[in-house]
């Protein structure tokens, strides 16, 4: 375990080297939240009713703000990093570490969980709590939320790792990465709450792994979901996606070792 | 002496798409299944003993890196077998990784934005190096190089020389049995090159680490290697002692002349069509095989038609021999 935590520590150290970048990140996050606020304010204004799709303006805002915070927390730019390592050939050096590559990479990025938690998630969470004056329930739901986030992180990493592996074949990163971001953010309910989706799409989304990344932890936090069912589905996706991403990587790695990188 | 690397009849083939020219060709390539097989390494065999420093030479694109990647386990040979420290590297890459160290001159495995000491600590944990071993290693590093000034410097602020030095130290940190150095002195100035060579030499001696060194710098080879292996176009051209190489080509000498007038090299070439002629700083060098003809004879021929102003005679250097082998190999 020590060899993994040492990678986390290095990640934190690395992030702290760039003070300005941290500041810009916090500011950029704030700016995005302001945009979200005005966008949804006008949506609600034009709808003419207090409640749209079973959610009040406050509900929606809390949901989206926390989704953004969660996004910042979970986004590790894995795809980007794998792609760049492939293009520059640095992947060879990583492959020559006496560690499973998938795990090595995860722990190399894990430092960002720590920094992001303190620099974006926690501040946002506190602000939301303060502004809405207790709209977020504080109880056992916090525990469910924590468990759910851990699984969400694992599912998210598996998705990223699969997409990163695709870069081995495409040898380009940008398009693949953007595509993944759009799909994940939309279908996971991070940009628009799933409650706003049309019925057929809701059904489709229900059977996809993405809603387990953002929608699941958020509904648990806001006390509006079936705890066991949500966690169960997440657990299933967690195991399934881990296995798939491992298999895909193993097959692809054989491809590189046979055909050269 | 025990064998640490055994390579037997190893070949490596790559499938490469035949690319066509122009826009139309590029679009057609999208649907093409027209592959050709490229043989990057062709039936190579060699054994390397524990503690040797082997110079692995060859022109660009000869298949050196491919061989090294197969030895490290990143590539799998198409045919033949490799045993590194008793393991098949491509089957047990992670296990093999524990026993080897790698330095690619162009890339760094160090953590870019962190001080060097942090990279060392990370590698210590990743390779599960014990505290005593780690401290011993650091102690040795302190004796070998002036490392204090580097330890607290972020890697990205280092000069290329300092970074290469650090990368080499990092590769030896977990006391691997074998270290692969891929062009470690590339782009370095003379004094830094000397420093790096001394360091490699010292580390090899202290720990009896086997070193596989690829380089284009004959200075590296002369300073470090007793044995050299030369490959070109995937085929092994030479595998023996460096002295043997020189005595093998011992009958060669280099005649250097300075000629008045323009196009001196073309004129010399015209006069001596069967000889290897090159030019450097106004000096035209001619490689003379004394078994076939004497230096005096060559000089006489040149004096007849050319205005030779000055001359010098040089015994053959390893570099020339290698150059000759490359060029004959390519012919």
Describe this structure in words.
The complex is a heterodimer of chains A (261) and B (331). By secondary structure, chain A is mainly alpha-helical. Chain A has one domain (2-255). Chain A has helices at residues 2-17, 19-47, 57-74, 78-88, 91-95, 101-109, 111-132, 140-170, 174-187, 199-206, 215-221, 227-259; strands at 51-52, 55-56. In chain A, strands 1-2 form a two-stranded antiparallel ribbon. With 331 residues, chain B is α/β, with parallel strands linked by helices. Helix content of chain B is 39%, strand content 29%. Chain B is built from 13 helices and 13 strands. The model of chain B has no long low-confidence stretch (mean pLDDT 86). Classes of the chains: A mainly alpha (261), B alpha/beta (331). Chains A and B meet through helix 1, helix 5 and helix 12 of A and helix 2, helix 3, strand 5 and helix 4 of B.
Summary, kept brief:
The complex is a heterodimer of chains A (261) and B (331). Chain A is mainly alpha-helical and 261 residues long.
